[in-house]
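User: Before I run my own analysis I want an independent prediction to cross-check against. Here's the chain; please return only the structure tokens and, at the end, one sentence I can use as a sanity check.
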Amino acid sequence: MQGLNGTPFQPATLQLTGIPGMHTGHAWVALVFCILYLISILGNVSILALVIQEPALHQPMYYFLSMLSLNDLGVSFSTLPTVLATFCFNYRHVGFDACLVQMFFIHTFSFMESGILLAMSFDRFVAICDPLHYATVLTNSRILTMGLGILTKSFTTLFPFPFLVKRLPFCKGTVLHHSYCLHPDLMKVACGDIRVNNIYGLFVVIFTYGVDSIFILLSYALILRAVLGIASQEQQLKALNTCMSHICAVLAFYVPIIAVSMIHRFWKSAPSVVHVMMSNVYLFVPPMLNPIIYSVKTREIRRGILKLFHKSLT
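Assistant: Structure tokens:
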């Protein structure tokens, strides 16, 4: 389909969708999303403030946790404008270029989270398998280099996506299936040859989620081997306990991704509401759960929060 000037048609705006089949009750959905955003933003800001203020938390593990919290804030703020506009103000239109920008940031922060979780698994590997060299291996400069490397990798691999989408004509309508912009969603309303988009998208997924998850599993295989070599059962449990927060964070991130992939691959006839709800879980649950997980499972974080709470009361 061609525009009036002979160029491929690209709509000025795209229409976002709430939850399919839910014509009433959006007020309750809006309230749920507002609560999720509030917990996520307050929780991650609290983690960042705590690590900055408490000298005892100026350690590699908590620097990586700060990266995770900062990234989770990025995920939340990337989706917040259109989600609140859709559910709170019933405004469902987003500019085409603004949609591409949002798509880029959502996917970039998502892939960065995978890289940060990999870096955190390396932190746990060094702490348990080579504790005597922990401070010399994970220096501040190396942690900074790892963080910049994760950012650079995610940015460069995702940078072509907006341009690959912008070259396509859109002739299958302008209605998206979510309250935010995702690359697979845009491909459903694009026409023309989308093979390059699909092939490159698959490459990026394998290059990030696939490679990162393999190295995370490898790290924990080596950690488990080292732990089983400890004679004392009490020391074994203590070593494993230091990994529990990270394991929960990995599960909170990867389980929804696997579930979305399995539904898309093996349950193509699933109602659209199932796909939408699983995508919402994938984007909204990890940023909300991560601060809770680390607050509950990490004694130093829990003590710091109680200390700040006590100061605020006095």
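Sanity check: The chain has twelve helices and two strands.
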